[in-house]
Fold each of these.
Amino acid sequence: MAELRAGGADLLDLTASNPTQANLPYDAEAILSALDDGSLLRYEPDPRGSADARAAVADYYRRRGLIVDPSALFLTASTSEAYSFLFRLLLDPGDQVLVPEPSYPLFDYLLDLADADRRRYRWAWDGAWYLDRDSLERGLEGGAKLILLVSPNNPTGTVLSPSDRAFVLGRARHYGATIVSDEVFADYSADHRAASLIGSEEVLGFSLSGLSKVAGLPQLKLGWMVPFGPSPEVAEASARLEIIADTYLSLSRPAEVAAPRLLTLAEPWQASLRARLEENRAELERQCLGTGLRARPSDGGWSAIIDRPRHQGDEAFVLELLREDQVLVHPGYFFDLAEDGCLVVSLILDPPQFREGIRRLVARAR
């Protein structure tokens, strides 16, 4: 990429996932006016985040059919920070954490920083995605203290079926494991409630989300955690978590002051993004038809996995596509997709760019 750009090449980046650079319609005036508030000049720290911001997050969930107590919420500077707080809360050095495979590669870095070890449980593929229950059971038998879920998963787009959901909650309770459920893409699934573990009472857990995906505003650095599970366990964990949050007090005052207004602006923005995701997925499936390429089905999220003929390895194909056609895609192994012949693309691109990028990809792969 550096070579090509230095030479003046105009690349089509089908990996781009930054919503602020995807030509999406933001209400710039309303967003900026939400930050125009005199209370920003006062420092009023609360380890859980301001009451107004927490009430706004709870109202966001209410509109999606989920009941959240504002007093139970914790606001953070990001979901990555939420992970770091929870790893400090729940893990000792060397403890094992169950991480989904395939998945976004962020977890390895976060767990290394927490001095924790990882074991994999699999989303397996046999023409459809399914949870490999045996791999989850083996990890728990091996002593894993924490299960990481991503719902919908990135990049598979998978959401636990009702039976898999009951299985995961039941086995976590049996082994005394805690669940952290990353639900940042839940608004981009068929049913937010089906994608979320909020309200589950079987086992201690935490649901994570934030403005980055909910409102397409990663630069404002506002995430949140929603504890769930048996009341005594939630109360004990929350008391300890408050000490961690109070130690850092990293939440941005402008972000929490603006949160109530920004969360109301999120809904029309999401509607435009969902329309784009549908348009680009339909275009991808149309162009793949009859070519030997196939877009794997998905329950949600911003990504698509493409199966291609295996004439060459993924890295060789990706580099050839980049050099010869000026199109960048992810090789599947970036996300720990086990088999060769998989590519991952982002669906949030401007449709004309996406259409042309997929056209070049299909022509190269046939």
Amino acid sequence: MTQLEENKLAAGPILGFVGGFVIFVYGAYEIYVGATVESLASLNGLPVGGLWAVVTAGFVGLVMGILVMGFSIGLLMAPDYHTVLGGLMILASVTSLVSVGGGAGVGLILGVLGGTCAIVFSPEDPSYSEPRPPVSDSAGNMPFSPQEPPKVDDPLLRACHSCEEEIPIEATVCPKCGFPTG
């Protein structure tokens, strides 16, 4: 895998984590400001209607920031789920709009960009995943040399490297055994 490919795969988790952290910090700030203003107002006997809504929105920001950071870490640990985690990262970032505009908009934008990068830049590169071993018969003999696929007469078909079934040339997975034909 080239350096550019590795950088593209790292863009989603990094942008998402930074965006989640910004959302988290702004949520904590909103809780602090709301609780401080409420306590000062109640000491002076002033009405404080609506300030607890600000504190509640701050808690939403804290939770959404933690979720976005968690999804970012999940991308590093389970990159095969990049589409799901990227979508959840976008959803949590947009939900953070309840709290100080999603981290003053910065956390929202970084979270959405991170989720988008996670969805678009997928780890389907063959060097990224573990290769499956070739299938052998019951005696342990290989039906063919792994470097040389079986011969097929039709130019629109080729043989599966695992089960030797004839498959279309453009197939990426054998319909009979499920072996990736690459």
Amino acid sequence: MRPLAEFVGAKRVRGLLFDIDDTLTTDGVLGAGAYAAMERLQRSGRLLVAVTGRPAGWCDLVARLWPVDAVIGENGAFWFARAGRRVERCWLDDAATRAANRARLAAIGARILAAVPGAALAADQPWRETDLAVDWCEDVQPPLSLETALRVRDLMVAEGLSAKVSSIHVNGWFGRYDKLETAKRLFAERYRVDLARANADYAFVGDSPNDAPMFAFFGNSIGVANVRRFEGRLEAAPRYVTRAPAGAGFAEVAAHLLGGR
């Protein structure tokens, strides 16, 4: 991972995709500096897309109230995009499939919690449409170790789920989509952009293992400094890394991009 200062392609970046927890937020809080950085980026004419493991209920708020153009949620289960005052929604699975899968996920969740002492369902589970979120270091006390989070991931995989570890949760879902595949779909369907061909025009910022597909795909991939806690655990690492962690690191990225023009 090279210092962000070595990223010389900032002037051509037309849009920024970014994770939320521990990338945009700091200790669970969206601070004024990070929020203002989003506003400055959007006012500069860049496309802003939040890409998160957070639930549909949260993502509706993000799409409506934040200075973003779209949000991808539940690790790629859907995208929501603002269209004037409305929010357009695209789900990968239909409503009947989502309802059936929620019942199956509830049973899997009960088995995992019984097998892993100290684990708990994420507090935002009631607002999820498509996935199971097990808390390993957001609200659980004491926080679980990364090794325990990886065990939860492995239990999910053994149950037939796709599973990823984020900085706070372990998420599992039916299907083989991820953040990257839905980002490609959003850009193709909503913005008529082929991200593979236009790769150099966009950048991604993240911090944890569930961002690895995005780190691998984007040549302009950036980790905020706290990504280093997962060094050696990432399937793919970001090309660049900020000096500051979390929200301050996001603001650092914004300043670098805005200074590139």
